[in-house]
Specification:
The termini are far apart. This protein is mainly alpha-helical. About 2% of the residues have low confidence. The chain folds into 3 domains: 46 residues; 94 residues, Orthogonal Bundle (DNA polymerase, domain 1), CATH 1.10.150.130; 141 residues, hpI Integrase, Chain A. A 3-stranded antiparallel beta sheet has the order 1-2-3, with helices on one face. Strands 4-5-8 form a 3-stranded antiparallel beta sheet, with no helix packed on it. It has a two-stranded antiparallel ribbon with strand order 6-7. Helix 7 packs across helix 11 and helix 12 packs across helix 13.
Length: 390
């Protein structure tokens, strides 16, 4: 029998390392030193974990499997804070909010947050990083209310990152915010309001100021008011839109923020007459301007019919205040004045709420509750008159 040729030895395979039940797969990395472990995620994809030693990879794998059961496992790749916030602004925040709010969010994050935190790893962003940012902004002179607004936006963005499993928890949750005292509202007395209207008499802004003081309409609602919104026969006004100037977008018309903001109100006869005279004067100006007139059908407009800018309005308003000898105040304080005077005149809070477009009467009662408290003594005097003589 022919001697059998000796068969060459086959290359021995290294025995695969055993793993405990439920540990997942642990293997030696071929391209680099160390070991790798992998587990299957709920979406069918696999997440790989690395360790310098088999034991380290095993420990990390066990930890990952525990976090997976607790639903705290990070399943997304890490990215820079700046990249994530830009993506969130454009794809999550923008479709859900008004354009004016979106522009504000972009400005606050890009101006104050991204320069300081944008280069950080999203998964390594810690509460102390955010706390240091807020301290730095305070030292720069940024108002506490602005910092609290930045915090609300950043918290919302990072909460979305938690929802997407990009981070385990929201680092904003434990950050301490600066105290922001409520801003004091400036309210004109009836006498001061008359002084203001006296110096504005005969000017185009006179009717705008009267309307603001009587109805409490917001600045954007006044600047967006059109002639078709006024029913002269029924002496009523319909608030249908608001106008704002947005950097990079120009003047933008939009609907009121809430359904209660879209409202109809009655106007007193003397104001209807003022509006008629104002319209007649505007027709004369339009004829004088000729083809250069921009017809937006606005009740309050520039000298050429275009939108009246908030900056121009503020300049006119501040000059009138100075001429009337009144303290500096915001145009928005005319709204506070209107609400305060209505309540002091005995108009019921829920009626005031409907006129000014508060989303709920609780806002009227909460912000202006001090006005009602000041009226308690007057109310008791009236009750004295009813029952005290008996």
């Amino acid at each position: 029998m022919a001697e059998q040729q000796e068969q060459p030895d086959k290359k021995r395979r290294k025995p695969r390392m055993r793993r405990g039940k439920g540990e997942g797969t642990i293997y030696k990395r071929r391209d680099r030193e160390g070991f790798a472990a992998s587990i299957t995620l709920e979406n069918g994809k696999r997440k790989t974990i690395y360790g310098k030693t088999y034991q380290e990879a095993q420990e990390k794998l066990l930890k990952a499997r525990y976090e997976q059961k607790q639903r705290t496992l990070i399943t997304e790749k890490d990215q820079k804070v700046g990249h994530y916030l830009e993506y969130w602004l454009e794809n999550v925040d923008k479709p859900q909010i008004r354009l004016s709010t979106y522009v504000l969010h972009c400005r606050l994050l890009r101006q104050h947050v991204l320069p300081e935190l944008g280069s950080y790893s999203l998964q390594k962003l810690a509460p102390d990083h955010i706390q240091a940012l807020y301290t730095h902004l305070l030292e720069k002179g940024l108002a506490p209310r602005s910092i609290r607004m930045i915090h609300a936006i950043l918290h919302k963005a990072l909460q979305n990152a938690v929802r997407w499993s990009k981070i385990v928890r929201n680092p904003c949750d434990v950050v301490k915010l600066p105290y922001a005292p409520k801003g004091e509202m400036q309210v004109l007395t009836v006498e001061q309001a008359h002084n203001l209207l006296e110096v504005a008499k005969g000017r185009p802004i006179e009717v705008l100021l009267i309307l603001a003081l009587i109805t409490g309409m917001r600045r954007g609602e006044l600047l967006g008011l059109k002639w078709q919104d006024i029913d002269f026969e029924r002496r009523s006004l319909q608030v249908s839109r608001t106008v704002s100037f947005l950097q990079g977008h120009g003047f933008v018309e939009s609907e009121p923020k809430t359904t209660r903001g879209r409202r109809k109100m009655s106007l007193p006869p003397f104001l209807i007459e003022k509006l008629k005279h104002h319209r007649a004067h505007q027709v004369q100006v339009r004829l004088a301007v000729g083809p250069a007139w921009q017809d937006h059908n606005l009740v309050f407009c520039s000298k050429t019919g275009s939108y009246l800018g908030p900056v121009n309005l503020r300049g006119i308003f501040e000059r009138l205040l100075k001429k009337a000898g009144l303290p500096h105040m915001r145009f928005h304080d005319l709204r506070h004045t209107a609400i305060t005077l209505m309540l002091k005149a005995g108009v019921l809070p829920h009626v005031v709420s409907e006129i000014v477009g508060h989303s709920d009467v609780s806002i009227t009662l909460g912000v202006y509750g001090h006005v009602l408290r000041d009226m308690h003594e007057d109310a008791m005097h009236k009750m004295e008159g009813l029952f005290g003589k008996g």
